[in-house]
Amino acid sequence: MPSSPKRLPFWLGIVLGLFALAGSSVLLVDYVRHAPVLCDGAGSGCGSIREHSGLGYPFGVPLPVFGIAGLLAVVLASLVPGRRARIAQAAIATGGAIVAIGLIGWQIAHRTFCPYCLVVDGSMVVLAALSVLRALRAWDPPAGRLEPGLAVLALLLATSVPAAVGFQMKPKIVSDGKTPEVILAEISKAPRGKVTIVDFIDFECPYCRMTHKELAPVVAAHADAIHLVRKHVPLRMHPHAMDAAKAACCAEELGKGDEMADALVLAPVEELTREGCEQIAAKQGLDVARFRACVAAPETEARIKADGETFRAAKGHGLPTLFVGTQRLDGAQDGATLRAVVEGAVRAL
Q1: Pairing, β 195-201 against β 4-5
Q2: Same domain for 157 and 237
Q3: Are 302 and 294 in contact (CB under 8 A)?
Q4: Which of 86, 66, 61 shows the shortest CA–CA distance to 76?
Q5: Looking at residues 326-346, what average pLDDT do you find?
Q6: Is residue 176, in this structure, part of any structural domain at all?
Q7: How many structural domains is the chain composed of?
Q8: Enclosing domain of residue 137
Q9: pTM of the entire structure?
């Protein structure tokens, strides 16, 4: 049967490919990011297929990579005239459609639906039908270079633009029903690609001091991957805790928060007076006049009050309390535990 160019089925296939490639690129972003960006979290249809279908990472590779590769192969084959190209397109598209039908069936069986997956899978099924029809009817792409060239450009944009935009977006912070909203809010502020650690601390609390000494080297070892947030909760039972909290807050304002926190933990408790904290600040190279003004400022006390409210909103009931991402650690922690939790969160990025 002689081949014949068909513009309508050709462009229908290109449009279906555009939708499917854009959807696959969106899914790929969420598969490789540590938290959902464009889809919802693990309890959603997107997350369920990714984590619970058993097909999320065949051979350790994110499923959308196979989808993008297969779709590009199908659509690029549609740009090539000739019998071999038609048969190759039909064969690849049919294989993709079988997988797509299986994924659609899994969603129906589990009553959970991923909108991006449905776009990709539905487009793949229709694209397979068009590909088989093309092979049977001997359709070829329009002659000339203009239309195939436009099609290639559109395909490249559909693949690259959603991925480029998605990788620049901050992850969605989706409630898991367990993590307090105030902690999720802190996680949402983290720079892309960093684990948030929220540390509720009282510098006079012996268990806080113990945990800080264990946590500090772990944070230092993974500094590029960690966003550390200290929340100051000076307990009334500790007479020097408020002075130490103000000192730590002001050191943060003046760019020496970590250094000051380390120094406060190492200093004898009886030296955590207002004057003692001022001397510690001077040893850290802080401008004493600016430090003193900050300590006296009402905004500093307001900050500490706000941190206490955050602690209560997080259902804090003792110190120290740490959140490494969404994982909560209550009470004093040893170095091995902290290292395992932090490194596990970093690996999951």
Answers
A1: unpaired
A2: no
A3: no
A4: 86
A5: 93
A6: no
A7: 2
A8: 4-168
A9: 0.57
